[in-house]
Amino acid sequence: MAEHIVKRVLSTATNIASKSPKRLLTTDHAATTAKTSSTISMNDIPMSKTMVDLPGPNGYPLVGTAPEYFKGENKGQMHKVQRRFHEMYGPIFKEKLGPVTNISIADPNLVEEVVRSEGKFPNRPPYPSWTIYKKMRTQANGLMTVSNHEEWSTCRTVISKHMLRPKTVLQYVDIMNEVVTDFVNRLKYTRDNHAANSAVPDLQNELSKWAIESISAVLLETRLGCLDENVSSENQAFIDAVGDMFKTGHQLMVFAELHKRFGTKTWKTHVDAWDTIYRVAGEHIDKKLADITEKYERLQSGSEDDNKASFLEHLLGNENLPLDAVYANTTELMLAGLDTSANAMGMVTYLLSRNPRVQEKLIKEVDSVLQNRICTAEELSNMTYARAVVKETLRLFPVIPINARVMTEDTTIGGYLIPKGTCILLNTFTMSRDATQFVNPDDFIPERWERDSNKWNPFSNLPFGFGARSCAGRRMAQQELYLAIIRLAQNFWLAPSRDFDAEPTLRTVLTFEKDIPVEFQDR
Ligand code: HEM
C-alpha cells in the first residue's frame, strides 16, 4: 500500500470527527464537451427536419402532457403510457412535459444514433429534485446524481476500476454467498413464523434487506445485520427512505421547484428521505473509516500484515476524490444497489412462479452442476440457464424502463436536428417488448438468449444502459442475482400466490408496490 494512502487514511480519522459539509467538490470546472464525428452543427445541414416537424401528443397549456401520467390507471405506469404514445406517433416523438420539451425514442437504430454520438462525457440528467436537494444541503454528488463532466469522469474512473473489473467482482463471490445463506434462512423463518400459507410476508422488504446487506458487504466489507431476526430501526429507515426518495423523485420530475416553494407533502417526504439516506449511510461509512484507520495504525506498528485494500480504501487512495465525494459516492452506490437488485429479484421470483417449465429447467441445471453444493466463482460460468433467466427477466421487466440522455451537441437523430441540451428518453421497456425484435415478446423465454438463437439488435435490450455512462454496478448486480436465484432454486419451488395478483409500477425503478404474489414451497 503506497505511503500516501496510509497518510490519507490516517488523516481521515480527524476528518470523521470534524467532517464539514463545506469540504465539497468544486463544481465550476469549465465544461469540456468533445465534438464527435457524428455530431453536426445547425449550420452543417440546412435540409434537416427539426423538432418542429416531429409528431407527438398536444398536451395542455403550461403543463403539457404531465397530467396524463398522474391520472387514474396511468399512475405509476409511465413506461406503458410512453409505449402507447409510440404506438400512436411512431418510434420518435416529442412531448411537452411541464415547461420542457422532451423527445422519446423506442427504436434500436435511433438509440444507437444517440449513444454513438454522446461523446466522452455522456450526460444522463439527474431528477431536478435531486439537484435542488443537493444544492439546498450543500451535499456533494456521486455517480448517480452528477451531471458536471469532469466531476463525473473523476468518480467514474475510480469506481469502474474496482466495480467493473471481472477479477475483482469474482473476489466477492464468497461474501455474497454468505449473505445469500442468511437470506434463505430468513425467508424460511419469516414464512414459517408468520404466514398462513407458504408466502413470505412483505417479501419486497425482505428482498431489500438482502440487496442492501449484499452490496454493503461489498462496499463496506461489513455485515449490517439486515438479515438478522431483529433489524435495526436505522437500517429499516434507510430501506424505506430509498423507496420514498425514488417514488417522490419520480413524482417531482415536473415542477420540483414549485413543490419546494409551496412546501408540498411530496417535497417534504423527498427531503426527509434524502436526509435519512445520508444520515444512515454516513454512520456506516464513519464506522468503516474508523476501522480502516485502526487497521493502518496496526500496520504501521507492525502488529498486522494484511494490507488487502477494501473498496473504500480504493476510493480514499485516489487523490482526485475529495472526502465528501467518497461519502457521496459510497452512499449513492448503496442506494442504487438496493432498489435495483431487490426489484430485479422480485421480478425473477414473480416470473419463475408463473413459468413452471422455466423453473424446472433452472432447477435441473442447478442440480446437475452443483448437486446441493454452494456455487463457487469457477462454477458460475457454467450456469448458463440461470444467466439467461436473469437476462430474460430484465428484458420483460427492465427495472429502469426509461433511461435518458441530454444531448451535449446539436445532433441529428432519425433525420431530425435535435438541439444541444434536449432531453431524450430512451424507452427500454417499449423496445424490449417490440415484436419486430423479439418473437412472442410478452412471453418469458430464457432460451432466446442462448447462443445463435435469435438475431436481435443489441440496442433493443439495454437494461444496464450503454457505454461510458452505463451501470457502474452491472457486474456486481449480475453476480448477486445469479448466486441468489441459484440458491432459491436449490431450496424452493416458487408458486403463484393463491391470495392475490399484482402488477409492477414505476417509481424510477419498476417495483411491486403492494406485495409480491409468490409462495415459497420447500422443494
Ligand atoms: C439489476 C440491477 C441493476 C440494473 C438493471 C441497473 C440499471 C442501471 C441503468 C439502466 C443505469 C443507467 C445507465 C445509463 O445511463 O446508460 C444505471 C446506472 C448506475 N447504476 Fe445500476 N443497475 C443495477 C444495479 C446496480 C448496482 C448493484 C449498483 C451499485 C453497486 C448500481 C450502480 C449504478 C450507478 C452508480 C449508476 C450511474 C453510473 C454513471 O452515471 O456513471 N447499479 N444502472
The CATH architecture classification of the domain at 48-127 and 401-462 is: 2-Layer Sandwich
In terms of per-residue confidence, which ranges show pLDDT below 50 for 5 or more consecutive residues? 12-40
Specify the structural class. alpha+beta
Query: Which strand order spans the largest sheet, edge to edge or round the barrel?
Result: 2-3-7-4
How confident is the prediction overall: mean pLDDT? Answer: 89
Radius of gyration: 23 Å
CATH topology of the domain at 48-127 and 401-462: Uridine Diphospho-n-acetylenolpyruvylglucosamine Reductase, domain 2
Number of helices: 18
Which helices and strands, and how do they pair?
Layout: H1 3-17, E1 49-50, H2 78-89, E2 92-97, E3 100-105, H3 108-116, H4 128-136, H5 149-163, H6 166-170, H7 173-194, H8 203-219, H9 233-251, H10 256-262, H11 265-301, H12 311-316, H13 323-353, H14 356-370, H15 377-380, H16 384-396, E4 402-406, E5 411-413, E6 416-418, E7 423-427, H17 428-432, H18 474-491, E8 492-496, E9 505-507, E10 509-511, E11 518-522
Parallel strand pairs: 1-6, 3-7
Antiparallel strand pairs: 2-3, 4-7, 5-6, 8-11, 9-10
Helix pairs in contact: 1-11, 7-8, 7-18, 8-13, 9-11, 11-13, 13-16, 13-18, 14-16
Residues 124, 143-144, 156, 215, 332-333, 336-337, 340-341, 344, 394, 399-400, 403, 463-466, 469-473, 476-477 line the site of protoporphyrin IX containing FE.
Cofactor: heme
Organism: Mytilus galloprovincialis (Mediterranean mussel)
Subcellular location: Mitochondrion inner membrane
